[in-house]
Amino acid sequence: MSHIRLQTGTAARTPFAAVLLSAAAVIIPIAAAAGLELDRAAVASGQLWRLVTCHWTHYSFDHFLWSWLPFVLLGVLCERDSRPRFLAAVGAAVFIIPVAVHFFTPGIEIYRGLSGLDSALFSLLCATVIREKAVEKKWAWVVVTSAALAGFAAKMLFEATTSRGFFLDTAASGMIPVPAAHLCGFLVGLVSGIWPKRKDAEACDTRPAEAHRAEVAPA
Questions:
Q1: CA–CA–CA angle 46, 49, 54 (5° rounding)
Q2: pTM here?
Q3: Angle, to 10 degrees, between the axis of helix 61-81 and the axis of helix 16-27?
């Protein structure tokens, strides 16, 4: 007797992880952020969980909205294209960004927000588009997407030189942008996007949504 298992591309393409991570930012209220934010003194005293939870905390509703909406959109797009790359980029950025902020920006005592992860997902999506369209020789896509990457680099330079947010009025809210977080996320996303594709790890992403594969094991 044989055992048959069906696998569907639809399940593989449903962005479960992006939805769950986005929901975490909604669930954590701003009032509770003080216990989860990246606080330099608290981390030094051993509260290491803050290095991870800080991404899902925010200072205000505007701060939350400007960080959360890009995360949802970019996260869904990236995960639907490749869940392994999405998880690799987010997983690496979650740890690398706060460590960089903690050790390389001594003037920052408190850090909150998804913007560093947004940066990682943006560059991941752009790198993926450039890699795939270059193979297909669709050079218009390559040029436009490369320009988007250059524009994002210009945004980071603006924030680094002016200490002002590009989209959000950080001065009015008493916040300052953290270019180191955005740069780290940006680089993590790029590396994740250009990393050689593993056919066995991403095979489920290359099948049509309606395709089924039957794996038959001898009795």
A1: 120
A2: 0.79
A3: 170
Closest C-alpha to 72, from 111, 113, 11, 15: 15
Quick one: which of 112, 57, 116 has its CA closest to 89?
A: 116
Task: Please check whether residue 7 is in contact with residue 204, taking contact to mean a CB–CB distance below 8 angstroms.
Answer: yes
Distance CA 93, CA 137 (A): 31
Domain 3-199 has CATH 3.40.50.720: no
Between CA 164 and CA 175 the distance in angstroms is 9
Give kind and range of the element (H or E) at residue 135.
helix 115-135
CB 213 within 8 Å of CB 7: yes
Residue 103, Cβ neighbours under 10 Å: how many?
Answer: 9
For residue 96, give both structure tokens: 């690398």
User: How much is the CA Rg of the chain, to the nearest whole Å?
Assistant: 19
Per-domain residue ranges of the chain: 3-199
Give Cα 46 distance to the centre of its chain: 26
Q: How do residues 140-195 score in pLDDT, each as one tens digit?
A: 999 999 999 999 999 999 888 887 766 666 555 567 788 899 999 999 999 999 98
Residue 185 burial by Cβ neighbours in a 10 Å radius (0-12, 13-18, 19+): buried
User: What is the total residue count of the chain?
Assistant: 219
Please give the Cα distance from 2 to 44 (Å, whole number): 57
Q: Is 141 within 8 Å of 129 (Cβ atoms)?
A: yes
